[in-house]
């Protein structure tokens, strides 16, 4: 039987998803996509297989493009809207989650912490360099034995005259082996004025060439391989008083940065889902089985239709959260948790389901869905695990904190 074939639609055309964004925002996203297509896309599969990425070269290119810390004001940062930043994250993660991680850690964790909580001297010294990609930053919060409970951190900062001495270790730190500066969170001997308890959390800006700092790379990763992940080891690292972030006291400092990074993820993973759909549409349109394109079979169309619907839903969620963040009222942490929880899980399942359409070819690096699905296993875990965001939403809905139950 002859197959009558019409024009293949892109993932955004069915529901006219792009209609919800401003024209200039979409034009900016197009600029980012073009740069990535020219400089990154053809190489990302090999970088993933090699378990690395040319972070410094990419940082300089991304700095020139203007995406590093682009949502921050001043200090040679672009001062873009939250939605524009989100759309940039969507294009970055459409190529690979590791690339979006590089940008998120640089701008939403390290740069945001300095911008929001740092001294004027710290901002002037580091932010212009980091915005240009001349300096790479990382963010040290997670520890080998402390993940979802940052209050249990063991890294300590003690006063020695006017200096601070840092000891401890951080784990799963994106960019640390190639970083020039790190924002490290540690417990001090200070007493919390509200609780009366000893051990106030403080942030410190630490140049990685400081004596006593080591940043060994994590090897043998199965996920997020096109990214450089490491540790931070602090052995009697002496810092001047000026290294402390003066405006950050308690967990509010690191948690505010994590919320910024989660926002980028809410948008970013829609890019991984979109790319998986685009790849599946191209493949099923050209792959002939039983004298017909694979896209003509009911089971193929069922999988594609399900993915189209799910992709549209998570994109609308991201767009709404972006508008909230750009509004005068702003966005609440539980709203970002909702977006992170739903969007990552949905995008991961889209990539998994679509991989099956590729048959045996789907397990090679030639096609992106399996790579996206494996990467999203990591995204599901970092910046708050899936379960932590479920409990955050549960607390918002019920008024009951179940974290310690």
TrEMBL record:
Positions of the Acyl-CoA dehydrogenase/oxidase N-terminal domain: 25-133
Enzyme Commission (EC) number: 1.3.8.6
Keyword terms of this UniProt record: FAD, Flavoprotein, Oxidoreductase, Transit peptide
Natural source organism: Brevibacterium jeotgali
Name of this chain's protein: Glutaryl-CoA dehydrogenase
Cofactor(s) the protein needs: FAD
Family annotation (InterPro entries): Acyl-CoA_Oxase/DH_mid-dom, Acyl-CoA_Oxase/DH_mid-dom_sf, AcylCo_DH-like_C, AcylCo_DH/oxidase_C, AcylCoA_DH/ox_N, AcylCoA_DH/ox_N_sf, AcylCoA_DH/oxidase_NM_dom_sf, Glutaryl-CoA_DH_mitochondrial
GO molecular function, one term: fatty-acyl-CoA binding
Gene3D superfamilies: Acyl-CoA dehydrogenase/oxidase, N-terminal domain, Butyryl-CoA Dehydrogenase, subunit A, domain 2, Butyryl-CoA Dehydrogenase, subunit A, domain 3
Family matches, as PANTHER family: GLUTARYL-COA DEHYDROGENASE, MITOCHONDRIAL
Domain Acyl-CoA oxidase/dehydrogenase middle, first and last residues per copy: 138-237
